[in-house]
């Protein structure tokens, strides 16, 4: 019965790793995947996470019972505080409903399905470009996907005029997906002044902001600074959605731990929204997993663990920033033609190099360097040892 099935294409991002794994070269370098690596190129489990895990394992009072459909209550409360701030009026007034999700992706999907079912405008505007999974997640959730301009290839920066123009002409009520910080794949974020203009436009047109927060703390190293754009929108009292991921900032990738928060106008509305979120979640996966959320809750709850976490988080962010500087310096030292200052200007895990797909193929074939065909490289996959190899490859690709 399945003989007619045609082979689906490899996921464009995860496919990079598949190709990398097949390459026997000792100098091969995987800059495709968006996961943090140490200077030694190894995955990192944070010390604070290891310690909390030990405590959880040793605590015999813990069991493996199902947790509620909406997840661990502590985890949800603490996640809302983390993104909105502990003094957030929306949190204090109980106007926020937060449910635990299967990392960022699952939280986006639940938010999308909720909107498709209960919101009057089923169109979501995504930035061009955006994380490759966004259009698929929201289309399958039942929303219709449209685009707004975001990135200007000519400046390798923000197309602010284009963004404002496109959001101005979006039908009133449309949903707008915004990357809270460290835009993937471009590494280009609006300034706080630009965010304020975006906020005014979104509110004046009654658009509904849906923030994707996959990199809080990873962009600047400060959890509060990276949450500023979201908090700007909460401060005006309007509604919004936020999907949070703990994949990057706590290194909990495979634990699939995240949260969806919906800020409402009153606590009564928030509780009705939550009752409907349960109906979205229950037939999808019934209830979320317990382990990752227990780790996060333990860290967020305890002042010492929290401080320890912020120190380890800042170290990851700083290493990435240092990789940007080293790569930039290496290209300048080689006299590589072109302006490479965007490497140090862009923010977060990725640099959108501006290399085209042909140059990317050349670098893969000749230098065994793997990245997505749009020229996005993960700065977290680089180390002081591998920067020269990458700089040589970029130099060769652009001077060919
Ligand atoms: N949104 C963006 C912009 C991302 O880059 C990612 C991770 N690549 C995610 C969401 C979701 O990741 P996860 O489901 O692993 O939390």
Provide structural commentary.
With about 400 residues, the protein is of the alpha/beta class. It has 2 domains: about 15-45 and about 305-400, Aspartate Aminotransferase, domain 1; about 75-300, Aspartate Aminotransferase, domain 2. The chain has helices at about 15-20, 45-60, 75-85, 90, 105-120, 135-140, 160-170, 190-205, 225-235, 265-285, 290-300, 305-335, 340-345, 355-365, 385-400, and strands at about 30, 95-100, 125-130, 145-150, 150, 155-160, 175-180, 210-215, 240-245, 260-265, 350, 370, 375-380. A 7-stranded mixed sheet has the order 2-10-9-8-7-3-4. It is globular, with a radius of gyration of 21 Å. 4'-deoxy-4'-aminopyridoxal-5'-phosphate (PMP) binds next to helix 5.
What are the key terms here?
400 residues, alpha/beta, Aspartate Aminotransferase, domain 1, Aspartate Aminotransferase, domain 2, 2 domains, seven-stranded mixed beta sheet, two-stranded parallel ribbon, 15 helices, 13 strands, globular
């Amino acid at each position: 019965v399945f003989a007619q099935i045609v082979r689906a294409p490899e996921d464009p991002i995860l496919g990079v790793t598949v190709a990398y794994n097949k390459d026997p070269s000792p100098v091969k370098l995987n800059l495709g995947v968006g996961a943090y690596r140490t200077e030694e190129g190894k995955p990192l489990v944070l010390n604070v996470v290891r310690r909390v895990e030990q405590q959880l394992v040793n605590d015999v009072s813990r069991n493996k019972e199902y947790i509620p459909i909406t997840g661990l209550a502590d985890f949800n409360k603490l996640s809302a505080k983390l993104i909105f701030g502990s003094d957030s009026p929306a949190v204090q007034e109980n106007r926020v409903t937060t449910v635990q999700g299967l990392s960022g992706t699952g939280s986006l999907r639940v938010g999308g399905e909720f909107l498709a079912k209960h919101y009057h405008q089923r169109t979501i505007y995504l930035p061009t470009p955006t994380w490759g999974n966004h259009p698929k997640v929201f289309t399958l959730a039942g929303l219709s996907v449209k685009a707004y301009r975001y990135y200007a290839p000519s400046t390798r920066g923000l197309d602010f005029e284009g963004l404002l123009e496109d959001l101005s002409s979006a039908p009133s009520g449309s949903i707008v997906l915004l990357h809270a910080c460290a835009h993937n794949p471009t590494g280009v974020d609006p300034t706080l002044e630009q965010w304020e203009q975006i906020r005014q436009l979104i509110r004046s047109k009654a658009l509904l902001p849906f923030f994707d927060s996959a990199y809080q703390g990873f962009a600047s190293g400060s959890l509060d600074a990276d949450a500023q754009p979201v908090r700007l929108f909460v401060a005006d009292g309007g509604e919004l959605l936020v999907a949070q991921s703990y994949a990057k900032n706590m290194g909990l990738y495979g634990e699939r731990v995240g949260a969806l928060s919906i800020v409402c106008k009153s606590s009564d509305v928030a509780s009705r929204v939550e009752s409907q979120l349960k109906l979205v979640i229950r037939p999808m996966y019934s209830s979320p997993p317990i382990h990752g959320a227990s780790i996060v809750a333990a860290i967020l709850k305890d002042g010492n663990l929290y401080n320890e976490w912020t120190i380890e988080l800042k170290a990851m962010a700083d290493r990435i920033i240092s990789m940007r500087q080293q790569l930039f310096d290496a290209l300048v030292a080689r006299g590589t033609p072109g302006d490479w200052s965007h490497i140090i200007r862009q923010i977060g895990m990725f640099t959108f190099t501006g290399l085209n797909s042909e140059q990317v193929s050349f670098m893969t074939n000749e230098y065994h360097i793997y990245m997505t065909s749009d020229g996005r490289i993960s700065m977290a996959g680089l180390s002081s040892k591998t920067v020269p190899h990458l700089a040589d490859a970029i130099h060769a690709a652009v001077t060919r």
